[in-house]
Amino acid sequence: MNIRAFTAFLAASIVVPFGAAQATDLEVTHWWTSGGEAAAVAELAKAFDATGNHWVDGAIAGSGGTARPIMISRITGGDPMGATQFNHGRQAEELVNEGLMRDFTDLAKQQKWADIVRPASLLKSCTFKGKVYCVPLNIHSWQWLWLSNDAFKKAGVEVPKNWDEYVAAAPALEKAGILPMAMGGQPWQANNAFSVLVITVGGKDLYQKVYGDKDAKAAAGPEMAKVFKAADDARRMSKGTNVQDWNQATNLVITGKAGGQIMGDWAQGEFQLAGKKAGVDYTCLPGLGVTDVLTTGGDAFYFPLLKDEAKSKAQEALASTLLDPKTQVAFNLKKGSLPVRGDVDLQAANDCMRKGLDILAKGNVMTSTDQLISQDTQKQLEDLMSQFFAGSSLTTDAAQKRFAGIIASAD
Amino acid sequence: MTDIPVTSPATKARRPNRLFRNLNSKVASIPMIVTSVVIFLGGTLWTVVYSFTSSKLLPRLNFVGIDQYERLWATPRWLVSIQNLATYGILSLIFSLVIGFVLAALMDQKIRFENTFRTIFLYPFALSFIVTGLVWQWILNPEFGVQSVVRSLGWTSFTFDPLYNEDIVIYGILIAALWQGTGLVMCLMLAGLRGIDEDIWKAARVDGIPMWRTYLFIIIPMMRPVFVTTLVIIASGIVRIYDLVVAQTSGGPGIASDVPAKYVYDYMFFAQNLGQGFAASTMMLLAVAIVIVPWAYLEFGGRKRG
Amino acid sequence: MDKSTIATVHPDMPARRYPGPQGKRPRKALSGRNIMLYGALGLAALYYLLPLYVMVVTSLKGMPEIRVGNIFSPPLEITFEPWVKAWAQACTGLNCDGLSRGFWNSVKIMVPSVIVSIAIASVNGYALANWRFKGADLFFTILIVGAFIPYQVMIYPIVIVLRELGLYGTLTGLIVVHSIFGMPILTLLFRNYFVSLPEELFKAARIDGAGFWQIYFRIMLPMALPIFVVAMILQVTGIWNDFLFGVVFTRPENYPMTVQLNNIVNSVQGVKEYNVNMAATLLTGAVPLFVYFVSGRLFVRGIAAGAVKG
Fold first, then answer.
1. In this prediction, what percent of chain B has a pLDDT beyond 70?
2. Shortest CB distance from B271 goes to which of A379, A384, A391?
3. Class for the domain spanning A2-140+297-350
4. Could you report the per-residue pLDDT of C17-48, keeping only the tens digit for each?
5. How is domain B69-301 classified at the CATH fold level?
6. Are strands A138-139 and A338-339 parallel, antiparallel or unpaired?
7. How many helices (H) and strands (E) in chain A?
8. Interface test with B, best of C12, C72, C152 (most B CBs within 10 A)
9. How confident is the model at residue C138 (pLDDT cuts 50, 70, 90)?
10. Do domains A2-140+297-350 and A144-295+365-408 have the same CATH topology?
């Protein structure tokens, strides 16, 4: 409890617990630029500034795909920032191996991260060769279907309770002049929506076989063919979305121009910002209402190894701040994600977050693809899926064949 | 500058010896030598060498032969980007040359307001590709742009959404690229036309050759060097195309407007597979070399003093 | 035909000096031919002007008007709010100070880059033209061929070189990069110009005992002022419009305007504000456009001279 009290004190106090009375500027890079995300980052900045340091915001627009290269080339180029966001998992693997990132094992032991971070797999994916290199910040799960209640009312059909009902309702939506499903044009959206279909329509075992064991036979098999059939439905329903960014696609659902969207829990931040109420204005179906499961990816902060001592101190302050219960609650409520601490009070959580917390509590969790496959494989899958979803040029059979090929050579 | 400051008192009245003279000149040329040898030559070789390795996030010298190239040429996205480059390249070459030449020929008719017209045709060239891409993204936006305007005029089934249609997206990019680049071609062509001896026109007129024939069979062949230079400039710009695509479509929809330069960037930095990115950029280099080396040899290698 | 003459003499030559190609001189103002001619030119001019027009009208409309109206119609109600927003308020993440920051960053990058790159290239061109040494041609050829190498091939090696020099991510580093990639075209420009000067000038100075730097500063530099202006125009527009180097070689607080433009346009909070985007786009294009409209013929001469190699 000592530590908890101490970290709480950290966030609240204006006195500087670390280092001198001088404020240290720490540049933090991330790719949170949508409305809900920016509001969440502001909470982090506020909490960090309260430790007597100064958060220098290094937001890079255009989602992780654009931002990560810039972050990586700065770290490898010898001009590291103070801290940077990555997704948990293998994105920073080689940077760690190269000794460019800071080892936080001592701080982690001191503050008993192993006891407070739930699920344990998150800290595990921050751990390389027994040492802790990142601070998990939140849990993001991809397996959500967001539906606009308004849109279905207008189309004269019930709000679906699962994927099959949703597909069945598509013609009615279309007739009412509503786009059945919104999907932005950025490649990662198509790819992740597909992986959601794998784990829900295909099931947990198939997901583990394909992404975990890289089983090319399973990827080419009949179970997978079913998933591709579902993906084909999804692509038909999302034809004509004509937007790039995920939050623009979400905005189509918010305004009732589109029936629904497969998107991670961060979409909730946008609904919230627009003043929409879960259960009333929109419906959320975790696991697409098919399989009660979530993957636990998320965002984590990594800290490049710095020579400047004051900045290193500030890094520690930031690391502690990120796991502070208050920060966890404030940030995650705005972001729409779930806290990495099982022991924080989430009274303000809405319907959707509670559903998510329930599933977490039941332990129906799987590892996210970010942790299972390398960026190289991820990119190849993105290329394939974005091509698949962009038009009808790729048949399901051809796509599956290529999918199996990528899985066969995956690492 | 009629009075040349001849002997300044500070200068000793001796002729600098050869070594000294060369030394000064060499000192002045150090940036050029460093750039050409270390960056251009060295950097290129470095990239080529590392394209034979399995480097991931960081360059490492673990050679894997031509694995990266085998994978590259088996990757559908690379093939799409090559195909796009070919389509875009050929059309862009043809259209820029034709439009550029026609505009130049029109401008060469001793028209009034020549300066105004030239200013108009050339101003897009002053803008960055990012700006160009964003403007045309807006004009071609199906919800607000050309498509919706035509539809609101009563033709409700009119469809023109190149940026959201896999099959024609590359033409959407072509429209923007031509808008930006043809002014330059026009200027080069006009310069070429102005260099044609007036006597040739007179002779053609005396012989009663119609104007279009004179252009086609006499003037254009005479302008061969200008065409070659323009071709080289356009071609090297084509291979490089990147900013425009990023701003206009980000390579989408799907991978339909992908180009080699974007593939290189994505695999180098996003996919954290440097070896693959280097292999792809080496292929780009090869494409440029095929165009440039013969030209450079003729242009600079063969001549002593230009 | 000698190409170098095209480059140095003709682009900005008045049309009168070389009579045009066609037959009868005095023409009636409204002949069929003229209607065709001006019709074609006018149509082409329309195509080139349209995007600029669309940008301007869109940036002056409010969002409600954009949603219902068409992009070509002039604004019913002119508002300058999008401009204010684009310049001072548009957000990327927590930074909501609009493009103004990018503008000053671009100025900070551009001014030293232009000066350094031109200083290096002019001396270099002078050395190549008048003080040739063995091997100079070889390096020069590599340099020119290098100008055509796709940047992607050299990005990574440059990252390494800058890292080793400790310049990565600094303003100095970016200035070095701009000097490197501006070098081929500028060196060529200056070399060609110095070569075209009468050799007697140089010989006379040599006989009088003037050295390398003396001749450069006292004779060549003053004579080359117009070409310096051309080079400046070339570099100002080139560096201002750069995107790739700005992305790769700077850190976010130093992002040039083009990168910030792309960020602002692609970082959407809620609905896309097309009017703000267009205002931002115009603001970013304003500097090169201003240079272009003011310099007019010199600009034309710059690109023609830079492009048509001799």
1. 90
2. A379
3. alpha beta
4. 444 444 444 455 567 788 888 999 999 999 99
5. MetI-like fold (1.10.3720)
6. antiparallel
7. 21, 15
8. C152
9. confident
10. yes
Q: Domain limits of chain C?
A: 28-79, 100-307
Instruction: Report CB contact under 8 Å: A242, B161.
Output: yes
Which member of B111, B129, B214 has the closest CB to residue C243?
A: B129
Contact A27, A81 (CB under 8 A): yes
pLDDT tens for A355-401 read 888 888 888 888 888 888 888 898 999 999 999 998 888 899 999 99
- Using CA atoms, how far apart are residues B92 and C147, in angstroms rounded to an integer? 21
Contact yes or no for A74 and C163 at CB 8 A: no
CB pairs under 8 A between A and B: 92
CATH of segment(s) A144-295+365-408: 3.40.190.10
Decide if domain C100-307 falls under CATH 1.10.3720.10: yes
Q: How far is B57 from chain A (nearest CA, A)?
A: 6
Are B191 and C155 a contacting pair at CB < 8 A? Answer: no
B256/A94 Cβ within 8 A: no
Task: Please enumerate in sequence order all residues whose Cβ is within 8 A of that of C21, keeping only pairs 6 or more positions apart, or say none.
Answer: B108, B109, B193, B196, B198, B201, B211, B214, B219
Nearest neighbour of B25 by CB, restricted to C72, C131, C293:
C131
Q: Tell if the CB–CB gap between C166 and A45 is shorter than 8 Å.
A: no
Q: CB burial class (10 A; 0-12, 13-18, 19+) of residue A348?
A: exposed
Query: Are C281 and C87 a contacting pair, CB within 8 Å?
Result: no
Q: Across the interface, do C252 and A58 touch by the CB < 8 Å criterion? A: yes
Q: How far apart are the first and last CA of chain B?
A: 24
Chain A nearest CA to C169, separation (Å):
6
Whether the CB of A100 is below 8 Å from some CB of chain C: the reply is: no
pLDDT higher at C272 or C213? C213
Q: Is the pLDDT of residue B177 over 60?
A: yes
Residues A273, A148 contacting (CB under 8 angstroms): no
Whether C106 shows a pLDDT value over 80: the answer reads: yes
Tell me whether the omega of the peptide bond preceding residue B253 falls within 30 degrees of 0, making it cis: yes
Cα–Cα distances (Å) from B297 to A118, B276, B300, C141, C183, in that order, read: 66, 31, 6, 9, 20
CB-based contact A31:A61 (threshold 8 Å): yes
Structure-token pair, residue A393: 């040029």
Token code pair at residue A275: 């003043």
- Residue in B83, B138, B272 to test binding to A, most A beta-carbons within 10 Å: B272
Query: B250 vs A244: CB contact, 8 Å cut-off?
Result: yes
Asked if residue A344 has pLDDT above 90, the reply is no
Contact between C241 and B127 (Cβ < 8 Å): yes
In angstroms, the separation between the Cα of residue A201 and the nearest Cα of chain C is 31
Instruction: Report the pLDDT value the prediction gives residue B301, as an integer from 0 to 100.
Output: 59
Q: Give C94→chain B minimum CA distance, Å.
A: 23
pLDDT score for A4:
46
Where are the domains positioned within chain A? 2-140+297-350, 144-295+365-408
The rounded distance, in Å, linking the Cα atoms of C45 and B113 is 12
Query: How far, in Å, are B6, B8, C194 from residue B2 at the CA level?
Result: 11, 16, 17
Residue A14 to residue A47: CA distance in whole angstroms: 10
What count of other Cβ atoms lies within 10 Å of the Cβ of residue A343?
11
Tell me which residue has tokens 């099982």.
Answer: A342
Q: How confident is the model at residue B93 (pLDDT cuts 50, 70, 90)?
A: very high
Give φ, ψ of A337 to 5 degrees. Answer: -100, 175
Question: Could you tell me the strand order of the sheet in which A144-148 lies?
Answer: A179-181, A258-262, A144-148, A282-286
DSSP A341: B
